Amino acid sequence: MLLPVVEYLPQTVLSRLEIYMTLESEWEPRIVGFLCKWCSYAGADLAGTSRKKYLPNIGIVKVPCSGRVDPLFIVKGLRMGFDGVLVSGCHPGDCHYQTGNYRARRRLAITKEFLEYLGVEPQRIQASWVSASEGAKFAEVVNEVTREVREIGANRLFADERNGTKAAKGS
Amino acid sequence: MKEMEQRLQKEARALLEQGKVDYIIGFEPGSLKFTTTPLITKDKEDVERLVINPFIVNNLSVFLTELQGRVGIVVKGCDSRSIVSLIQDNKVVREDVVIIGIPCTGLIDLSKVELVTGKDRDELDDIAWQGDKITVRFDGEEKVFPTEEVLFDNCLGCECPTPQEYDILLGEPRPAAPNLTASRKNLEKLDGMSSEERWDFWKNEFSRCIRCYACRNVCPACFCKRCFVEESEPQWVLPVPRWQDNLIFQVIRNIHVAGRCTDCGECERACPVNIPLRSLSKRMYELVDELFQFKAGMDKDAVPLMTHYELEEAEDFIR
Ligand code: SF4
Ligand code: SF4
Q: Taking each helix axis from N to C terminus, what angle separates A100-118 and B195-206, rounded to the nearest 10 degrees?
């Protein structure tokens, strides 16, 4: 399962999530990663060009800034059946737009805690700071996140027992 | 209560007569016993209908963003904080409102009264404050109840009974005496559950939601012109009331009002299918306090929570 990369219009984000979900396979953790284009995305790129091996369980959505990540993206990802969501941006102080990642941090903090209060497993919502030079760190983050998500198993949160279908294609 | 009511009517009349406000927003008796309904008027003769009693549940600040001109508004402590929050968000101009504050003793939850008396609300003759207790009259008898048994949960935990911001105060300021345990009763139950149990609980609750959006419409913190649930390009949330989408709607709504919600309790009261919405909004209220030491609507010059950040703050969850 090699998942391609996507640009960041909301329509594209949504349709890309749908495509990822229709890829057939045995259960393998499926993780969607929202990477900021300046740091983490470039970091992922570097991981590739420097031939760092990492688990192929992540599908990447490129966003202009971690501050662009609406909590709705995260919840929608879970709703569509992704087993984990990763949000990754520039380290504090390094945001291309100065403050985007600080804002993302606040938003992520309440989103994560609030979803945990509702009953979502903490491992499903992940975040990291990965700079453009940290290809190795990116590979490590993906491996770690995949391992943790594999441990807690498939996302059945939004699976609808009433008609026995697996969760929840959005529309 | 009676003196407060008379003073309110006098002040409201004066404001309209002197042309200091275009509208008065307050409460008038509702069509059912022990209820009130919002009164929005330009007519000074209407002020006689204004009441103050322990059933003035609405958070009237929700109307401020819809009215043009200067408005005189009757508020309780929590409502005044909603106004302050709207001022922070540049939704309301301070000079355009004349805030008539009630030092609030708390509101009476009729379902609790029914529970403790074993009577239907129609069978009750009178409910009134007596000192710091509540007396209920029915069948020719009078029974006294401590406030914990009959006030709304959010009122029991009220941190701000005296309005935070006011131009006229209809009485002496009241000190806060929050009873955290009593006000967190429903949340405590959830705290004791495992994640799966909690998820099942909410799944169950939200299978009842009919997506009437009453919770959103009564909430002064929900002021977007176009709500994300009504977007169709792309359509994030289905308009059909399935529990999954109902739950997502409420989760995102709570995230949107984080730092604006003053725990007024209106969403829970408005819900026609009795989903315990305050167990969500109150948790979010606590979370923003724990993480960012922020309480909504306390200071009109404060920067709104989500437009601000500190260089060092909660990030142990980030790798
Ligand atoms: S008020 Fe209750 S039923 Fe109506 S949309 Fe809100 S949660 Fe659903
Ligand atoms: S979310 Fe509920 S409790 Fe909070 S301000 Fe809105 S109506 Fe009031």
A: 90
Check whether the bond before B234 is cis (ω within 30° of 0). Answer: yes
Q: How many domains does chain A have?
A: 1
Q: Is A171 part of a structural domain of the chain?
A: no
pLDDT band at B37 (very low <50, low <70, confident <90, very high): very high
A87's CB contacts (< 8 A; 6+ apart) are A33, A34, A66, A69, A74, A104, A108, A126, A127, A128
Which residue's CA lies nearest to atom 3 of ligand 1? B209
What is the value of pTM for the model shown?
A: 0.90
Does A65 map to a domain?
yes
Q: Which residue ranges form the domains of chain B, and what is each CATH number?
A: 2-107+151-318 (no CATH), 108-150 (3.10.450)
Question: What are the tens digits of pLDDT across the range B270-317?
Answer: 999 999 999 999 999 999 999 999 999 999 999 999 998 888 888 889
On whether any CB of chain B is under 8 Å from the CB of A119, the answer is yes
Q: Does B301 touch chain A (CB under 8 A)?
A: no
The pLDDT of residue B206 is above 50: yes
SS3 for chain B is CHHHHHHHHHHHHHHHHCCCCCEEEEEEECCCCCCEEEEEECCHHHHHHCCCCCCCCCCHHHHHHHCCCCEEEEECHHHHHHHHHHHHCCCCCHHHEEEEECCCCCCECHHHHHHHHCCCHHHCCEEEEECCEEEEEECCEEEEEEHHHHECHHHHCCCCCCCCCCCEECCCCCCCCCCHHHHCHHHHHHHCCCHHHHHHHHHHHHCCCCCCCHHHHCCCCCCCCCCHHHCCCCCCCCCCCCHHHHHHHHHHHHHHCCCCCCCCCHHHHHCCCCCCCHHHHHHHHHHHHHHHCCCCCCCCCCCCHHHCCCCCCCCCCEC
- The region of weakest confidence among B1-5, B16-20, B86-90, B213-217 is B1-5
Number of helices (H) and strands (E), helices first, in chain A? 5, 5
**Residue whose pair of structure tokens reads 């008379």 in the numeric block:** B6
Residues of A in contact with B208 (CB under 8 A): none
Task: Write out the residue range of the structural domain in which residue A136 sits.
Answer: 10-162
Q: In residues, how long is chain B?
A: 319
* In-domain check, residue A170: no
Six-digit token pair at A101? Answer: 């990642």
Is B243's C-beta closer than 6 angstroms to any atom of ligand 1?
Answer: no
Contact B140, B209 (CB under 8 A): no
CATH number at residue A29: 3.40.50
**R_g over Cα of chain B:** 20
Q: Do A14 and B306 touch (CB under 8 A)?
A: no
ipTM above 0.90, yes or no: yes
Residue A2 domain-assigned? no
Picking from A68, A77, A60, the residue whose alpha carbon sits closest to that of residue A18 is A77
